[in-house]
Write a structure and sequence with these properties.
There is one protein chain. With 390 residues, the chain is an alpha/beta fold. It is 51% helix and 11% strand. Helix 12 packs across helix 13. The longest helix is centred in the middle third of the chain and has 23 residues. The structure holds 5,6-dihydroxy-NADP (NZQ) and zinc ion (ZN). 5,6-dihydroxy-NADP (NZQ) binds next to helix 2, helix 5, strand 6 and helix 7.
């Protein structure tokens, strides 16, 4: 087991009606002028935004709403929103939505606290040393941004989609009412299930030995997400299933499934280039790339993949190699069962040319390497992208 430090300070308020505590929580973290970010309209349609607004105003808080965050959130939107939040003199940023809204809220918080710095500088390596508090009202179980230390933005000028990891990205609280997710479409639920699985799988496939408890946590989480994902896809108003997904979504990306090891995240990086270039949904980018990645790397540690097959999919016959391959096949079959893509044609971007593949590989690895399980350089990235190019 590697040495580690673990801190996940986000206060979780979970359950029916949790959003009624939004104002109370903002006040407890010192907020009085609240800049409220939301997405393309689902929170208006469901009535959630109006409920939140009423809750804030009744508590005597000043609020300014700012809608229009897109999936794969854009840098320029965050820059404009930060300007508006600064003009409003915001002292608290509230994201009402999924990963895209919450990540934008984090970027806006950094922008307001550092008005002389271009937000993208933080995504390019500049250290964040101060920010505003961010709260999240979660509307979709997926990205885990509500308690993670990451935020992902797309710089539309360069086409680069990139994450920033800093403890300043941790929201001070996350409101999680599973009933709020009842309005999700089948596709959005499936994207969420895939992303939650992937946050654990990208930490499970590791070369670090030992660490049994973290393995058991990861395996239990994966089995639970698959079981409850199936229930939620059959009935999106199943409160228990949506609760399991929502809580697993947070645990999966709060680093709890990583303790004592180091995450890989190659599949995320390969997938981010697809989203940066073709604006595909994050969950779909992951299911498209995972099988291609897994088939390329599994021989590095076939026993690890065989264990995954046994613990997650119940494969307990055949040799190590055979079980490892069965686990990859069954994972892809589950993605297809959810109507998720497993290659470029299913993703809707068609068969790519060599130049297009080279572009993706350059953006992903450049002259360096990404990932740890099997460090991926440009040449390897080309092979993996080509394997998904069906
Ligand atoms: O914009 P609205 O109208 O709200 O619709 C959204 C959006 O179209 C819709 N939606 C959300 N809640 C809903 C709902 N529709 C109906 N009812 C509801 N209750 O769902 C669509 C997707 O929303 P989005 O916020 O993009 O989803 P998600 O949570 O999957 O976030 C994806 C983004 O997060 C990043 C991804 O790369 C992507 O940009 N990630 C962030 C991470 C982090 N900060 O820790 C880690 C992840 O690995 C991921 O990279
Ligand atoms: Zn993800």
């Amino acid at each position: 087991m590697q040495s580690f430090e673990y801190k996940c300070p986000t206060e979780i308020i979970f359950g029916r009606g949790a959003e009624e505590k939004t104002a109370q929580k903002i006040k407890s973290y010192g907020g009085s002028r609240v800049f409220v970010l939301y997405g393309g309209g689902s929170a208006i349609k469901s009535g959630l935004l109006a409920r939140i607004e009423r809750n804030l105003l009744e508590a005597g808080l000043q609020a300014q709403k700012h809608g229009g965050v897109q999936p794969n959130p854009r840098l320029s939107f965050a820059q404009r929103a930060a300007k508006a939040a600064k003009e409003f003199n915001a002292d608290f940023i509230l994201g009402v939505g999924g990963g895209s809204v919450i990540d934008t809220a984090k970027a806006v918080a950094h922008g307001v606290a550092n008005p002389d710095v271009d937000i993208w500088d933080f995504w390019s390596g500049k250290e964040v040393t101060k920010s505003l508090p961010v709260g999240a009202v979660l509307t979709i179980a997926a990205a885990g941004s509500e308690s993670s230390n990451s935020a992902v933005l797309t710089n539309e000028e360069t086409g680069k989609k990139k994450g920033l990891n800093t403890e300043f990205n941790r929201p001070v609280f996350a409101i999680m009412n599973p009933e709020i997710t009842f309005t999700l479409s089948r596709r959005q639920i499936a994207c969420g299930v895939a992303d939650i699985m992937m946050h654990t799988m990208e930490r499970y496939f590791t070369k670090i030995e030992g660490n049994k408890f973290t393995d058991l946590v990861a395996e239990a989480l994966l089995v639970n997400v698959i079981d409850n994902g199936r229930i939620a896809l059959a009935n999106r108003k199943d409160y228990e299933a949506m609760s399991e997904l929502m809580w697993c979504g947070s645990v999966s990306h709060s680093n709890f499934t990583e303790l004592g090891r180091t995450k890989d995240f190659s599949v995320h990086k390969l997938g981010h280039e697809l989203s940066g270039k073709y604006d595909v949904a994050h969950g779909e980018s992951l299911t498209t790339m995972w099988g291609a990645w897994a088939r390329f790397v599994y021989e590095d540690d076939a026993p690890r993949f065989a264990r995954f097959a046994e613990k997650i999919w119940g494969v307990n016959s055949g040799g190590t190699e055979e079980r490892a391959r069965a686990g990859i096949r069954l994972t892809e079959e589950f993605f297809r069962e959810m109507d998720m893509p497993t290659n470029f044609t299913e993703l809707g971007i068609g068969h790519l040319t060599d130049e297009e593949i080279f572009y993706l590989a350059d953006m992903c690895a450049g002259n360096g390497k990404v990932g740890l399980f099997h460090p991926i350089d440009r040449e390897t990235a080309i092979k993996i992208y080509n394997s998904a190019n069906k």
